[in-house]
Amino acid sequence: MAAQNIPGVAVMNGFGYQIRWRPALTVTGVASLVAAPFGGHAVNLAAISAALAAGPDADPNPRRRWIAAFTTGTVYCVLGLASTGLTWAVLAAPAGLVQAVAGVALLGAFAGACAGAMTDESARLPAAVTLVVAASGTTVAGVGSAFWALVVGVIAHRLFRTASTTPRT
C-alpha cells in the first residue's frame, strides 16, 4: 500500500490537490479486500496514473481534470475484464511472436537511449562497454550481468576519463 499510495499522494500534492490520508487509505484498503478473492491486485493511488490525470496535460482547467481520471479508471476496468481473453491470445501466439513484437516496440526507445549515451564522445566507449557486458548475460558469483555492466562501465569511465585528462608529453 505504501509503495504506490505515498508517491500517488506526493504527485497529487505536487499538482495542488490535497488528499486526506485516512479516507484514501480506507477506500483503497477496502477495495483491495474486495478485489483479492478475485485475484485482484492491491487498489491504490498509483503515482503514474495520478501524474497523467492530474497534470495540465490532462486539461488546462484543474476543475475538469476529473474527466481524465474517470476515463483512465474506466479504461483500466475494461482492460482488466478483457485481460483473460488477451492472455489466451498471447498464449496461443506462435513461440517468439510476443517477444518479437515487444522488441520492435522498444526499438525507438533503445535507439534514443543509445544516441543519448553515445553523444558525449568522452563517454562513448564506456557506454558501449557497459552495453556489451549487460547484453552478454554473464553471471559471476551468482550476480547477473546488469550489475557487472555497471561495475565495468564505472571502471571504464574512470579509466578513460583519467586517460583523457592526463597531459601528454
Automatic annotation (TrEMBL):
Q: Which GO terms describe its molecular function?
A: benzoate transmembrane transporter activity
Cellular component (GO) terms are: plasma membrane
Record keywords, A-Z: Membrane, Transmembrane, Transmembrane helix
User: Which parts pass through the membrane?
Assistant: 30-54, 66-91, 97-117, 129-156
UniProt cross-references to InterPro entries, sorted A to Z: Benzoate_Transporter
At the top level, the lineage of the source is: Bacteria
Mind telling me what this protein is named?
A: Inner membrane protein YdcO
State the species of origin. Mycolicibacterium neoaurum
